[in-house]
Amino acid sequence: METIQDEKLEALKGHRLLGVLSENARQTLLKDSLELEMPSGTTLFRQGESARFLHVVLEGRVALIGSSDHKDETVVEFFREGDVFIMPAVVLEMPYLMSARTVDDSRILLIPATPFREEVESNAALNLAVTHELSRHWRLLIRQVKDLKLRSAPQRLGSYLLSLADTDQQSGVVELPEQRGMLARRLGMTPENLSRAFNRLQDSGVRSRGRQVMLDDIPALREFCAYDELV
Amino acid sequence: METIQDEKLEALKGHRLLGVLSENARQTLLKDSLELEMPSGTTLFRQGESARFLHVVLEGRVALIGSSDHKDETVVEFFREGDVFIMPAVVLEMPYLMSARTVDDSRILLIPATPFREEVESNAALNLAVTHELSRHWRLLIRQVKDLKLRSAPQRLGSYLLSLADTDQQSGVVELPEQRGMLARRLGMTPENLSRAFNRLQDSGVRSRGRQVMLDDIPALREFCAYDELV
DNA sequence: CGGCTTATTGACATACGTCAACTATTGTGG
DNA sequence: CCACAATAGTTGACGTATGTCAATAAGCCG
C-alpha cells in the first residue's frame, strides 16, 4: 500500500477515463489514491459495503462476484488491465452490489470516491468519458442477460470463445484468460457443465488443450451459437 | 405523430433527466421531438437498427425485447411512465441491442439522437443527470444477472413480487403491471413455468387472483427467496 | 353469448446440477 | 529435478428444474 508514483501516473495519460483529465487535475485526483499490489484470490471489497473507492485495474484481472445466501456465488463480470469498475456505486454513493476478488496477481488503483465524484461534477470532459464508459458497460451486461435467457450452456461458451477470437477468419486459436472454474461461473454454469459444453462444441470444430482453445471452424461455431454481431 | 405541445412540455419540468434543463434548452431540444400515441403491441424499433431517437415513456409501458435467431424472444426489461430508455445506444451512436414493443397503450416521446447527444456534451447538468440515470440502470441489470445466475424460477418470481410490495409490512397486495406471459419472459422462464412458480409460492403465503397478488407472509417469502435488500 | 386470446395443468423430454471417483495440472520442498 | 501434495478439471451416474407439447380452463371483448 503506497501512494501512487509519478512514473505510474504517466501511464494513465492514455487511459479512456483518466486520460481526459489535465495533468494537473489528474495529479490532484490521484494524490490520495492508493495502489495495491495483491496476489490472486484477494478480496478487494464485499457486497453491501459502502463504495469508498473507484477501482482501476492497472495489471492483472478482477472478478465481480455476486452472492445471495453466503453459500452460492457467481461471477458477474471480469475486468482486466485498464478497466474501471464499480463506478455506478461510486457515482450514486450506494453500497456495492457485488464483491470483488482478484483472479490473477494484480495491481489495483483505488481512487477515493468523494473527490472522484466531485471531479465528475465539475469537469465536463471527465463526465462525458464517464457517460461513455457507463454506456459501454450497460451494453456488455445487456449482452449477458440476452445470453443467459436465450442460449444454452454450450452456446454461451461458444459465444464467449468467439468474442475472444477474430471472427472474420475461418479459424483461430484463443487463450482462455481465466481458470475454467471461474469461467464457468461467469457463463452461468457449473465447472462440470463447462467441461461438457466443451465436449459438445467439438462438433463445431472446437478443441482445447489447457488454456489454448483451437477454433477450427468459426463459421460453424457462429451458426451453432446463433452468434450475435451487435457490439 | 405530431410535434410536442407546450402543455405537454410543461409536464417534463419535474422529469429526472429533462427536468434539469433550462426552460429554453428544453424547448430547443424538444422542438424536433415526436410524440407517438400507440396501442399495446406496437414495435417501436428493432434490434440492429441504428439509434435514431432517445425514448421517454410518457404514459403506458414498454418492453425491451432481445432476440437471437428470430424465433426465440425474451424480455430484458420493462419501462414505465417517466422512464428513459435506450440511452446508451444513443450516446455511443451504436445500433440498438434490443427491440422495443409497447405492452400497454402508450405515449412515447422520441427525442432525436443527435441534438440530444450534443446537448449532453455541452450541458453539464444534463450530463450529470445522464450519469446518474445510467448508473441506476446498470444496477438494475446487475440485480437481474445475479437473479438469473443464483436463483430458481420461484425465487425470481418471489423477488419480483417483493420488489412491487412494501417489504416493511407483514403482508400486502400487489398488482401485476403486465400480462403473465410477458412477465414470464422478463423473469427468464416460460409462461407454463411461471404458473408452477406461483403454485410453489403458495407455501410462502402467495395467492393470486387475476392480476391481484396477495402476499400473506412477507417475511416467509423473503426467507424463501433469499431476498436481497441492496438497492 | 360466442369466439379469441391468455393462463393453467398434465405428461413427458431434456438440460443442467450434484455427488463421487478419477485424472491432470500446478506448485513446493527435498 | 524429482516426488509428492494440493488444486483444478473431467467423467459417469443420477436427481431435479425447467422446457415442450397438447389439452383444458379461464379471461376478455365484440
TrEMBL record, chains A, B:
Keyword Nucleotide-binding: no
Keyword field: DNA-binding, Transcription, Transcription regulation
Cited Pfam families: cNMP_binding, HTH_Crp_2
Gene3D superfamilies assigned to the protein according to its UniProt record, in alphabetical order: Jelly Rolls, Winged helix-like DNA-binding domain superfamily/Winged helix DNA-binding domain
SUPFAM superfamilies attached to this UniProt entry: cAMP-binding domain-like (SSF51206), Winged helix' DNA-binding domain (SSF46785)
Domain HTH crp-type as annotated: residue spans: 151-219
InterPro entries: cNMP-bd_dom, cNMP-bd_dom_sf, Env_Response_Regulators, HTH_CRP, RmlC-like_jellyroll, WH-like_DNA-bd_sf, WH_DNA-bd_sf
CDD domains: CAP_ED
All copies of domain Cyclic nucleotide-binding, residue ranges: 17-137
PANTHER family tied to this protein: CRP FAMILY TRANSCRIPTIONAL REGULATORY PROTEIN, REGULATORY PROTEIN YEIL
Name listed for the protein in its UniProt record: CRP/FNR family transcriptional activator FtrB
